[in-house]
Amino acid sequence: MERKAMIISMKIGATKEEIAHVCERLGDFGYKAHPIFGEERVVIGAVGHGERKEQAMESIEAAPGVESVVSISQPFKFVSKEFRQAKSPVKVNGWEIGGSEFIVFAGPCSVESEEQILATAEAVQRAGAHILRGGAFKPRTSPYDFQGLEVEGLKLLLKAKERTGMAICTEVMSTEDVDLVAEYSDILQVGARNMQNFNLLKRLGKAGRPVMLKRGLSSTIKEFLLSAEYIVTSGNSNVFLCERGIRTFETYTRNTLDLSAIPVLEELTHLPIIVDPSHGTGKRSLVPAMARASVAAGADGLMVEVHPNPERALSDGPQSLRLSQFDQLMKDLRPYMDLWKAERASAQAAALVGKA
Ligand code: PEP
Ligand code: MN
């Protein structure tokens, strides 16, 4: 039998009794209730094999404390466009990912030393980047490769933040490290290799920090969105996605950057999405063209690896831009970003008119 789902948004200030009553009524109709206690209000996801969906929806709609009931046909519920039409911007340090500004994340693959991270942070900020990236815990394919400076790396990122005022985005690889990384970082990055680490995703629901979820190496878009759904249903709706290329038969590039994922995700989800052309191509010479294409495709931002001396980088040197190349990239992107901004403003205005 087909599994049916709906999402019930409770009114702000709905009482415990009203929430319990809705969950009980859902049970009567054959639905399992998953209440999520947000900062502002409670929303209840309901999934089941219930026969009488229309009747259930009408009955729940009339229950005290209920604001609205929507029916969701997609396998991912809370992150789907059916649940929310408008994009859900993620606020970080005064910026909004998925808002009216195109947001650029830049920095080295790995934090390697104080001089390296400070020089990179200052240079990318001067060039116009908004958020500093840098790995302290590194998920390396080979156990013999550099694994990251770990806590020392987090401390250096904090130093760079104090120096520049830029927010930090860094990867967390395991559930045990979530609290530690959240202490230092403004955004918690889930790497491609961990996209389906469901225990980590669930734990991030309680991390109290925005999460950037990277697409898995061989993941479908449906799997990508179901992973985001784990974080949201575990209690954290501050999630955005990162397309970083997928594995295909092509070997000339490190990955195949799936730019069609941008408009596809735009159709399916309200979560913001950024593009990482560095891992997406694996080659520095290919990064600028894919960066321009990402802006044109309507992504909400970019993540670019930058290193003061890529030849000496401890990870991902071949795909890292030099400081001067990043500066040039930002200059070249300017007209594309201006067009992006104009288009975003008119889309937002049209959405407002639609609502009125
Ligand atoms: C990274 O951002 O440095 C990284 C390891 O990316 P991914 O998880 O996409 O391979
Ligand atoms: Mn990297």
Model description:
With 356 residues, the protein is of the alpha/beta class. The chain has helices spanning 16-28, 53-61, 114-127, 151-164, 178-184, 198-204, 221-233, 261-268, 277-281, 287-297, 323-355; strands at 4-10, 31-37, 42-48, 66-72, 90-92, 95-97, 103-107, 131-133, 167-171, 187-190, 211-214, 239-243, 273-275, 301-305. An eight-stranded parallel β-barrel has the order 7-8-9-10-11-12-13-14, surrounded by six helices. Strands 2-3-1-4 form a four-stranded antiparallel sheet, with helices on one face. A two-stranded antiparallel sheet has the order 5-6. It is globular and about 65 Å long. Phosphoenolpyruvate binds next to loops.
Distance separating the two termini: 39 Å
Helix content: 25-40%
Cofactors, ions, other ligands? phosphoenolpyruvate, manganese (II) ion
Overall morphology: globular
Rg measurement, Å: 21 Å
Counting helices, strands and paired strands, the structural category is alpha/beta
> How many beta-strand elements?
14
Q: What proportion strand?
A: 15-25%
How would you name the oligomeric state of the polypeptide chains in this document?
single chain
Largest sheet: 8 strands, parallel, barrel
Which strand order does the major sheet show?
7-8-9-10-11-12-13-14
Rounded mean pLDDT is 95
List keywords for this structure.
38% helix, single chain, 11 helices, four-stranded antiparallel β-sheet, 356 residues, alpha/beta, binds manganese (II) ion, binds phosphoenolpyruvate
